[in-house]
TrEMBL record:
The keyword Ribonucleoprotein does not apply. The keyword DNA-binding applies. This is GAF domain-containing protein. SMART domains: Trans_reg_C. InterPro entries: GAF, GAF-like_dom_sf, OmpR/PhoB-type_DNA-bd, Sig_transdc_resp-reg_C-effctor, WH-like_DNA-bd_sf. Coiled coil: none annotated. Keywords: DNA-binding, Transcription, Transcription regulation. Residues 244-310 form the OmpR/PhoB-type domain.
Length: 434
């Protein structure tokens, strides 16, 4: 096959390919081996699905309903391009007895529209708004896999990990925030075998690019044009949007802006020194030089001194997560959490803020006991050793894969403590450090 992202090469017999894929799927679920002609993108997704503990006979769970779903959709950035999706894909979906679906970056379906008969059929496998269709929830599928690998993906018949989904074929492409480059979600077309064609993959990819172009033309909602936007979660070097410019900040400048965004009233030089440097030998001259470079980078009028402060409002992804946690919107907070705050930073104040934000979110996740949200955290790089979260996940989703990982973490924790010491309820954050 010339293009590994396309499910069927031109001229291939879909019925024959379906039979071969069913045998390959059975071989994988029984023995863990992948046989030809399974595409590499599908084989990798099957392996990720198995590691996540997805059951081949399972189904999607509905996380958001009624008012919660409506509120979440209303504030999601992709709501602003739904008219465009309907214009470009609505007639195609209705006439072809297909479905137009849009999911968020966690694989949660926000909109499912199209032919009414096809919608009723899809309802039976919970392919409905508010349902979680991430790889960690239902295994290989176009919208979930697309956001997982950040690529347009086509999934044909028995390439789906869940047997309930194998009568379907789908193609999806991720949609990115044009300002930050982060995945907002994916647009998907789902239906019958006729979608197993290169044109359907190219179609959703073109629609996704059109949506990104449209988002770039729209002014940010409810954002002051003279404000700053700071993105600092999950990245060592923050990105700042200032007066239409994207600025990639150095690590030290990232730390300074994170702290000044937290303190609109400003910070004195001594306060910034203590917040940024563990080494007490660092002089005020060093800090003043960094601030002078930052002032030149930002441009005139944005950074003042005595005390050091930003002269315009700052919206940061840290503040978004905190606000959503404060209102009890755990799902929305997780959607905005792209990872630890400036993970490589050793600045004392940044370290404290990073821990406080992560601890607040993980505590809310454990209390919420939502298996998909817990799985998202546990499978992320920052959560793979989080014993509390794995314990909570095992209590609500006790699959063999989850239990195996929890057992390994428990053994690792026991080995890390001195002989004769009973760690009891010690968490990953309480482990001895070498």
């Amino acid at each position: 096959m010339t293009d590994p992202w396309v499910a069927l090469e031109p001229g291939a017999d879909p019925v024959q390919r379906m039979r071969v894929l069913r045998r390959a799927h059975q071989s994988f679920t029984e023995a863990g081996t992948v046989t030809r002609p399974v595409r590499s993108v599908v084989a990798d997704s099957w392996r990720r699905s198995a590691r996540a503990g997805v059951a081949p006979d399972g189904t999607a769970s509905v996380e958001l309903t009624d008012g919660d779903l409506g509120s979440y959709r209303a504030e999601h950035p992709l709501a602003r391009v739904m008219p465009l999706f309907r214009e470009l894909m609505g007639t195609f979906a209705a006439d072809g007895e297909h479905l137009l679906a849009v999911c968020d970056a966690q694989g949660r379906l926000l909109w499912v529209e199209g032919h009414p008969v096809t919608r009723r059929q899809a309802d039976r496998m919970n392919f409905v708004p508010g349902a979680r269709w991430s790889e960690t929830a239902v295994g290989t599928n176009a919208p979930g896999t697309s956001v997982a690998v950040d690529r347009p993906v086509q999934v044909f018949a028995a390439e789906h990990f869940s047997r309930r989904v194998q009568p379907w074929t789908c193609a999806a492409a991720p949609v990115h925030d044009p300002r930050t480059g982060r995945v907002l979600g994916a647009v998907d077309i789902t239906g019958g075998d006729g979608l197993a064609h290169p044109h359907s993959l190219g179609f959703v990819q073109a629609v996704a690019r059109a949506a990104e172009s449209h988002l770039a033309l729209l002014a940010p909602p409810e954002t002051r044009t003279d404000g700053l936007e700071l993105t600092a979660l999950g990245r060592d070097e923050a990105q700042l949007l200032a007066r239409g410019r994207k600025i990639r900040l150095s690590r030290r400048h990232s730390e300074i802006l994170v702290l000044l965004a937290r303190h609109p009233e400003g910070l004195t030089g001594d306060e910034l020194l203590c917040a940024l440097y563990e080494d007490e030998s660092v002089t005020p001259v060093t800090l003043r030089a960094e601030l002078a470079r930052l002032r030149r980078l930002l441009g005139p009028g944005l950074l003042e001194s005595r005390p050091y402060r930003l002269t315009v409002p700052v919206e940061s992804d840290v503040a978004v997560v905190e606000r959503r946690l404060g209102t009890g919107s755990v799902t929305a907070a997780m959607a905005a959490y792209a990872g630890p705050l400036l993970p490589s930073s050793g600045a004392p104040a940044v370290v404290r803020l990073r821990r406080r934000l992560a601890d607040g979110l993980r505590t809310a996740l454990v209390a919420r006991r939502d298996p998909d949200l817990l799985a998202d955290w546990a499978r992320a790089p920052w959560g793979e050793d989080d014993l509390d979260v794995w314990r909570a996940l095992a209590s609500v989703r006790p699959t063999a894969a989850v239990r195996s990982r929890l057992d390994a973490l428990e053994r690792e924790l026991s080995a890390a403590w001195p002989r004769g010491w009973a760690p009891g309820g010690a968490t990953s954050s309480q482990r001895p450090r070498s």
